[in-house]
Design a protein that fits this description.
By secondary structure, this protein is of the alpha/beta class. The chain is about 40% helix and about 25% strand. Helix 1 packs parallel to helix 2. It is globular.
Length: about 110
């Protein structure tokens, strides 16, 4: 399980390098919510290292989305593998998350 955060043009890029499932979802959510509480208003969640997301992972993403939008911030996802993109479409979460091909595209759209 890995989670890395880097700053790029006043945007926090959170890279996830494991499954975003029941075993990691609460850790992911807690760590990202710490960023929001620390005043980070723009987040990119880079899922290029994620091969699997379950309902717990989707719930964690939605929790983070709610938290950051309530603080007036913005969040987007990038680097989705086809199976994760399909899951977002099936759950209609692709309608509430902005999704970009990679970090560079996401940075361009958030700045």
């Amino acid at each position: 399980m890995s989670l890395a955060v880097k700053e790029e043009k006043n945007i926090s890029v959170v890279s996830v390098g494991c499954h975003l499932d029941y075993s990691f979802a609460s850790t992911f959510k807690d760590e990202v919510l710490k960023l929001v509480k620390a005043g980070k208003k723009n987040l990119i969640i880079d899922l290029s290292g994620v091969n699997f997301v379950d309902s717990s992972g989707l719930g964690a993403l939605v929790s983070v989305l709610r938290a950051i939008t309530s603080e007036g911030g913005d969040i987007c996802l990038c680097g989705l593998k086809p199976n994760i993109q399909t899951m977002l479409e099936l759950t209609r979460l692709n309608r509430i998350f902005e999704v970009y091909a990679g970090v560079d595209d996401a940075v361009k759209n958030l700045t």
